[in-house]
Design a protein that fits this description.
mainly beta, eight-stranded antiparallel β-barrel, globular
C-alpha cells in the first residue's frame, strides 16, 4: 500500500525504487506516479507582519497523466498527509494539526484533483478542486514541466508555485491580529516515475 511505501527507510529509497502500489492508478506510457522521496511541498507565510516563515509537508502521494502532444488531456491527483507537516517546532506542528488550522483528525489529507487543463505558452494552467480542513475550493495553478530523466526507470518532473488564502478554507487563526498572514505561498515540486 502507499502507507507501506512511505514507511520505507529514506536511505533505501535513494538506492532502489520502492515498490509502488499502482492498484487503480493509470498505467499507460503517459501515466506517472509521484515518487515521495524525490518530491517536496514547501509553504511560506508572513509571521507577525515582519518576516516570511517557511515550513514543509514531508510526504506527498499521487499521479499525473501527461502527454506533451496532448497537454489539455493532463490530469493530476495529489494527496498530502497533514500529519507530515514540519515547521522545525513540534509544539507548532501539533497546533497546525489541531482545530485552529487543519483539524487533521477529521481531515487527514490535503487533496488536489484536477478537472481541466489549458496550455499557456510553456505553462499548463491546471484547474481543479483543492480540499483541506474540511473545505473545498476551485483554484487554477500554473504547472511547469521541468524535464525527463532516467533513474531506475523513466522520470518526469513538474513544478507549481501559487498563493492561496487560508481563510478560504476556514483557517482564520491570527489573521485579524496580523500575527499570521492570510496568504500562503505554496511550492510543489514533484518527481514522477512512469507507471507502465
Amino acid at each position: 500500500s502507499m502507507k507501506t511505501l512511505l514507511l520505507l527507510p529514506a536511505a533505501f529509497a535513494l538506492f532502489a525504487l520502492p515498490t509502488l502500489d499502482t492498484a487503480g492508478a493509470p498505467r499507460g506510457e503517459h501515466d506517472w506516479l509521484v515518487d515521495p522521496s524525490h518530491s517536496s511541498v514547501v509553504f511560506r507565510v508572513k509571521h507577525a507582519n515582519a518576516s516570511w516563515f517557511q515550513g514543509t509537508f514531508d510526504k506527498i502521494e499521487g499521479s499525473v497523466t501527461y502527454d506533451p502532444a496532448k497537454p489539455e488531456a493532463t490530469a493530476v491527483t495529489l494527496k498530502i498527509p497533514v500529519d507530515s507537516v514540519d515547521t522545525n517546532d513540534a509544539k507548532r506542528d501539533a497546533h497546525l494539526k489541531g482545530g485552529d488550522f487543519f483539524d487533521a483528525g477529521e481531515n487527514p489529507a490535503i487533496v488536489f484533483q484536477s478537472s481541466k487543463v489549458a496550455k499557456k505558452g510553456e505553462v499548463l494552467e491546471v484547474t481543479g478542486t483543492l480540499s483541506m480542513a474540511g473545505k473545498s475550493k476551485e483554484i487554477t495553478i500554473p504547472v511547469e514541466f521541468t524535464g525527463t530523466g532516467e533513474f531506475y526507470g523513466k522520470r518526469a518532473g513538474f513544478l507549481s508555485t501559487f498563493p492561496i488564502k487560508r481563510s478560504d478554507f476556514g483557517m482564520t487563526y491570527g489573521v485579524g491580529e496580523k500575527t499570521l498572514g492570510d496568504e500562503v505561498a505554496l511550492q510543489i515540486a514533484i518527481e514522477t516515475i512512469q507507471a507502465k
